[in-house]
């Protein structure tokens, strides 16, 4: 059984930068994964700085030379954004939960890719990864990518505020024969 772990970056401040607490928790999470025997093959991360720093601190805690690969599907702009300058205005107009629910309902949003199209792009990427049967792949991304994608996989019609993925929370996605078979409930070590 192959698994992809889809995780939100560590805690950020109002400027979008990872906090000192976030760096410590990302390091500690790497240590916890190692102690729990969770084997990681490599990390694929959003190129946004807070995600890259989360990956670097995780690797330090994991105490391994894991390869970190930047991927624009996971952010900057991500699979759900067509035009980031226009999408920012949409995020200024609506709350995060409103944007997410409008996506899930497949409503047209200025600057955004169609929900199904964006989800299928990420699903295809995950399915085509070269999995090593003994190791997991770790993706580090953002709540605005993780939540709609998990909603798509779970065929959810709406999302509640309490369901939004928090810092360093993650989902395990089970892959069999290059197909997504199961999404396990979100987890956190904090």
Major beta sheet summary? 6 strands, mixed
Low-pLDDT stretches are none
How far apart are the termini?
A: 26 Å
Number of structurally distinct domains: 2
Alpha carbon gyration radius:
16 Å
Overall pLDDT: 95
Beta-strand content estimate: 15-25%
**How many strands in all?**
6
Q: What is the SS-derived class?
A: alpha/beta
Order of helices and strands: EHEHEHHHEHEE
Q: How much helicity do the residues have? A: 25-40%
What is the approximate shape? globular
Question: Please, how many helices?
Answer: 6
Strand order of the largest sheet: 3-2-4-1-5-6
Describe this protein's structure:
- The protein is α/β, with parallel strands linked by helices and 190 residues long.
- Strands 3-2-4-1-5-6 form a 6-stranded mixed sheet, sandwiched between helices.
- The chain has 6 helices and 6 strands, in the order βαβαβαααβαββ.
- It is globular and about 45 Å long.
- The chain starts with a strand and ends in a 7-residue tail after the last strand.
- It has 2 domains: 9-76, Rossmann fold (3-Layer(aba) Sandwich), CATH 3.40.50; 78-128 and 145-166, no CATH class.
